[in-house]
Amino acid sequence: MLRLDLLHPVISGNKWYKLKYNIEEAIRENKKTLLSFGGAYSNHLHAMAYAGKQFGLKTIGIIRGEAVINETLTDCKEWGMDLHFISRSQYKNKTEENFWSEIQTSFPGAYLIPEGGNNDLGIKGCKEILQTIDIAKYDIITCAVGTAATYTGLIEASLSSQSLLGFLAIKSGEYLRHEIENKTSKRNWDLITDFHFGGFAKKNLALLSFMEDFKTTQSIPLDFIYNGKMMYGLFEMIAQGSTFDSKKILVVHTGGLQGNRSLI
Ligand SMILES: *Cc1c(COP(=O)(O)O)cnc(C)c1O
Known about the structure:
This protein is an alpha/beta fold. Helices cover 38% and strands 17% of the residues. The strands form 2 sheets. The protein has a 5-stranded parallel sheet with strand order 1-9-6-7-8. Strands 4-3-2-5 form a 4-stranded parallel sheet. 42% of the residues are buried. The structure holds pyridoxal-5'-phosphate.
């Protein structure tokens, strides 16, 4: 397991890789403010708030849904992030051009980062995730998938002889196949669609008790939104007889443990 959860005490996991070239670009463009989007427990906004503070940049978070306060958003505020709540229906338009330009007009001069840090600079950063280890030792690489920016970076960095399995953390994520195909010419990958547990951030007792067992037996904490589902799925596939016989699997732990604070 590649433990990106141990990368940094706050900016855990894949989010740093997605932010680094965006922050570099914001500074190059002489921008003073980073703006991005997310849910109320967003790992991405949490990481961006902290990173912004470290780099002396203001941060603005556009949050999906009615105004709330929780541990994640309290951290974000403490690190200086301005929080703006918008309705779920407005939020749905966030990839549309006029929404984008409205945001740009409302927050002039801000450097806009898409939800989850999913842009070409985000993917560029994620190509570096595997640089810290000797990947040639592994036959299979697995990772959790949200926007697929991280997964696309891993695919790009992989050897053609390897195969990659991306476990969808969302329901109806089939469209991501296209998006990934548009960003990479490599075809040594697949999406596993069976372990989203009903949709993004949905959970059940089987998942939570699997995570509990995993923590006890492996001493490795997992988050329930991404890595818990991936690990559950991988174990399930092995149990159901998918042949990984004598294959060496590299599991990428993308972090995100702060999100477990939404579990009550
Ligand atoms: C955001 C996130 C992901 C998904 O990454 P994408 O690049 O959006 O696919 C996976 N794991 C964790 C812990 C995350 O926070």
